[in-house]
């Protein structure tokens, strides 16, 4: 985020363009897969908890778990979109020699 703000405000990248493109794409991929892994683990744990006596229909913990899982998957969708956009920038860089598609 800091690198993007710097780039927008100054017009220059912190790293050389080729490294910046792959850096952004790689980090989007890593964080997307980490978030998906955490969401799937949280979903399984919530399912396990719902099968016990701890989780009743009006338990605040269970409601918060459901909301947390839903927000986690929504975050995954936004990170997936960010990953697609950074992948598009990588492809533009490979084809055009610049990540800015003109």
Automatic annotation (TrEMBL):
The protein's name is CASP-like protein
Family indicated by similarity: Belongs to the Casparian strip membrane proteins (CASP) family.
Q: Where are the transmembrane segments?
A: 67-95
InterPro entries, alphabetized:
CASP_dom
Q: Supply one GO CC term from the record.
A: plasma membrane
All copies of domain Casparian strip membrane protein, residue ranges: 15-78
Would the keyword Membrane be found if you checked this record's keyword annotation? Answer: yes
Pfam families for this protein = CASP_dom (PF04535)
Subcellular location, record wording: Cell membrane
For membrane topology, the record states: Multi-pass membrane protein
Q: Which domain of life is it from?
A: Eukaryota
What is the native source organism of this protein? Rhododendron williamsianum
Instruction: Tell me the subunit arrangement.
Output: Homodimer and heterodimers.
